[in-house]
Design goal:
Order of helices and strands: EHEHEHEEEHEHEHEHEHEEHEE
Shape: globular
Largest sheet: 5 strands, parallel
CATH superfamily of the largest domain: Tetrapyrrole methylase, N-terminal domain
Distance between the termini: 11 Å
Oligomer: single chain
CATH topology of the largest domain: Cobalt-precorrin-4 Transmethylase, domain 1
Helix content: 25-40%
Mean pLDDT: 87
Bound molecules: S-adenosyl-L-homocysteine
CATH architecture of the largest domain: 3-Layer(aba) Sandwich
Number of helices: 9
CATH class of the largest domain: Alpha Beta
Low-confidence stretches: 1-24
Strand content: 15-25%
Number of domains: 2
Structural class: alpha/beta
Number of strands: 14
Radius of gyration: 21 Å
Length: 294
């Protein structure tokens, strides 16, 4: 959702056909506008971590001007509500383990739609540059000679930090922050836990896609020398109304997360910064007046 002020932005370009709105989003089976435009293009757009008001104005404009939007499972419903109803949408989600569409099929679909002359938005949760397989998609576009651009989004770590009050750096205890993942291309490969444990002593480490491996990660980090009382936070559904935060130690976090029955998506924050948590009131962020998508 978006505030009324954003609606009044000067120069906002409303696409043709806007007046012909129909109920519900359509599926793009055939190009609706071929013949009008010679060549399609793809905008790879970051949808942010959940709250639609965290979309950039540029991302929002891309959604208004799209012919078709291909979106992932991580894209929040509130962001999808910002897509005008005449714009076609296709879910190409892949949730950990459950691939509803293989990556190469997503690439092919994107290329096919753009080649038919459409203005395609490839909408990705968070930021397209962070654990989003964007390079696979841009390579396919490059090979097909399709022009594309990338619109950044707020990555989950930044969103979670703001909405929980846990800073990512703090000059008293963390001079840097690492965004990492517990999942490599090869599922059997594990991170270097000794190196991770050593880094965590002086910097923050945010682990994406780590919830399922939380107990393994904590066990290995403790074996690698991380003290049992080292602070950890797990944030589920960051920036969404159902956000949940569990803070504990590397010794107790897995048990507490199991008790809280977190399902994900979730981020793990390892570091002394968890103790520097500021008492933010996230409800204040929900008090902006909204208008729904057209
Ligand atoms: N491109 C995304 C990351 C995609 S990887 C970004 O920049 O944020 C998917 C992982 O991101 C999830 O498994 C989870 O670890 C994390 N994630 C994404 N959105 C999240 C949210 N709203 N709350 C908590 N974690 C989230």
């Amino acid at each position: 959702m978006i505030s009324t002020t954003i609606f009044k932005l000067p120069g906002l370009l409303f696409r043709r056909g806007m007046e012909n709105t129909t109920k519900g989003h359509k599926h793009a089976d055939a190009p609706a506008t071929s013949g009008r435009r010679q060549k399609g293009r793809v905008m790879i757009v970051g949808a942010g971590p959940g709250d639609a008001e965290l979309l950039t104005i540029k991302a929002w404009k891309c959604l208004q001007q799209a012919d078709v939007v291909l979106f992932d499972w991580l894209v929040n419903q509130s962001v999808l509500a910002e897509i005008p109803r005449h714009v076609k949408t296709e879910f190409v989600g892949k949730r950990s383990g459950k691939h509803s569409m293989p990556q190469n099929a997503i690439c092919e679909r994107m290329v096919e739609l753009a080649q038919s002359g459409l203005n395609v938005v490839r909408l990705k949760g968070g930021d397209p540059a962070v654990f989003a397989r964007t390079t696979e998609e841009t390579s396919a576009l490059e090979s097909a000679g399709i022009p594309f651009a990338i619109v950044p989004g707020i990555t989950a770590a930044s969103g979670a930090s703001a909405y929980t009050g846990i800073p990512l750096t703090d000059r008293h205890c963390a001079q840097s922050v690492t965004l990492t993942t517990a999942h490599f291309k090869d599922e059997d490969v594990l991170p270097d836990f000794c190196q991770m444990a050593a880094q965590m002593m002086s910097q923050t480490m945010v682990v994406y896609m780590g919830l399922k491996r939380l107990s393994l990660i904590c066990e290995q980090l403790r074996k690698a020398g991380l003290p049992d009382n080292f602070p950890v936070a797990v944030i589920e559904n960051a920036c969404c109304p159902n956000q949940q935060v569990v803070t504990a130690t590397v010794f107790s976090i897995s048990r507490q997360v199991a008790e809280a029955e977190l399902q994900g998506p979730a981020l793990l924050i390892f570091g002394e910064v968890v103790k520097s948590r500021q008492s933010v009131t996230p409800a204040l962020l929900q008090q902006v007046s909204h208008v729904t998508g057209i």
